[in-house]
Amino acid sequence: MQQKRGVLFVLSGPSGVGKGTLKKMLLDEFKDQVLDSISATTRKPREGEEPGREYFFISRQDFLDRIANNDFLEYAEFSGNMYGTPKSYVYSLLEQGINVIAEIDVQGALQMFERMPDCVSIFIQPPSHEVLEARLRGRATESEEKIVQRLSAAERELSYAMKYRHRIVNNELKLAYEELKRIYLQYTTEANK
Ligand code: 5GP
Questions:
Q1: Which residues lie across from 75 on neighbouring strands?
Q2: Is ligand 1 within 6 A of the CB of residue 74?
């Protein structure tokens, strides 16, 4: 019998919107079915991050070499750093029937929609600009300059929300997660395929 292919979920939204938390909740609840796509980045690790777990942290030169080798499904420069989704890793999971969730920025997502038109795209929105700014500042892991850069990127990102198949407003985490789970099950439950 042929192995059923996994489903690729693409998750975007401005920094500080809570998409990382929502993704983690989904990964925890459906451990045996869905895996995180681990990206490569030129950004420095944040405290608590480990190489190969959150990201593969690589130099800019390595990143450029990998672009030249066509190793990425998509890549983008975001807030002064490069981020890319390794192609072979994602393909091999999907072929094994494992669902994959890729948390990527909007520039990368647009490339992904071209290359993987069957992907299920979900955009996470903040309830308001003020809430987003408060959450970003509350995180306090970044310099003021980086926070301002991320806020202006957030404004740009929000204008792309309509290009996604689904949008979720993260006002209350529990409700936002229920919505994410409903979308996940809609595409992965046998009866709905
Ligand atoms: P952070 O530096 O906070 O971990 O991530 C910053 C942004 O980069 C987030 O919006 C995240 O979604 C995006 N990002 C992470 N990995 C990738 C990737 O592989 N490709 C693209 N295009 N964006 C990514």
A1: 84
A2: yes
15 lines ligand 1 (CB under 6 A): yes
Structure tokens at 154: 């957030």
In the reported structure, the alpha carbon of residue 123 is separated from the centroid of ligand 1 by a whole-number distance in angstroms of: 13
Q: Where are the domains of the chain?
A: 8-191
Query: What's the whole-model pTM score?
Result: 0.89
- Ligand 1 atom showing the smallest separation from residue 39 Cα: 19
- Please tell me the residue having the least CA distance from ligand 1 atom 5: 15
Q: Where are the alpha helices (DSSP H) in the chain?
A: 19-29, 60-68, 87-95, 106-115, 129-139, 144-158, 173-188
CATH fold for domain 8-191:
Rossmann fold (3.40.50)
User: pLDDT for 80-121, tens place per residue?
Assistant: 999 999 999 999 999 999 999 999 999 999 999 999 999 999
Q: Which of 168, 82, 171 is nearest to 120 (CA)?
A: 168
